[in-house]
Design a protein that fits this description.
By secondary structure, the protein is mainly alpha-helical.
Amino acid sequence: MTTSTSRRTMGRPRRLTLRQVIDAGVDLGLEDLSVSAVALRLGVSAGTIYTYVENRDELMRLVAASLAERPPIEDCGQHWAEIAREHAAHSFELLRNEPVLLAHVVSGAVEPEEAFPEMERFLLLLTARGFTVEAAFALYRGSGQIAVGAAVTSAMGHAWQQRGESRRIKVARTFAETPDAYPNLHGLGAIFADDSSYFDYRPTLERLLSQFAAERGETLPVPSDEAAGSFAGNFPGEHLLPSGETDQLFAQAEE
């Protein structure tokens, strides 16, 4: 049986490298990825691409793994909480901006060992700041789970918007049509209704960080300006209906 490795080393010299093939796929993005599209981008035949990958599934897996890579967090003497915030922010932004990658991660197409380098780096940074390996791993896992969960809900919000209505409008319409059905949700106000609040993972992350700080007998430092910046604009737009019309729907629910 001929393996993909042996096929890549036999025959006449290649015009490309596997890295070039993957990079071309990254430039295209998973949503538009195909063997023929990569070939067109690189100016070669599809047959040439097949000397580097077995099929489209392998190409998708390699490109997804490359997209999931992240530059290592630099040690600038920052507080351990800033490291966790950076880890969570990168996870959220990556998966929110690449919903097809999110689907691949969920399907298991990205192998677990792909994350080992970043995990090891995170553990090294936190153990250097007095964490046990176990506590550092718990923070890595907890902050990552918060960010990934938020990326899932944000991707859903984007899909709703693409179909014509934001989440906020759907909430407003449901409250207006069934004003007495969900009193607890209605009572939450903007925390539940406004997309910018609903999709913001940072308050949940800060509660997790505060718990770790308390266990260490520390006071959690205020997030950096970048981490504390407004989340507005990072999510699907709230209003595809005129804002006045959306407000009218909420007003109907209040009556």
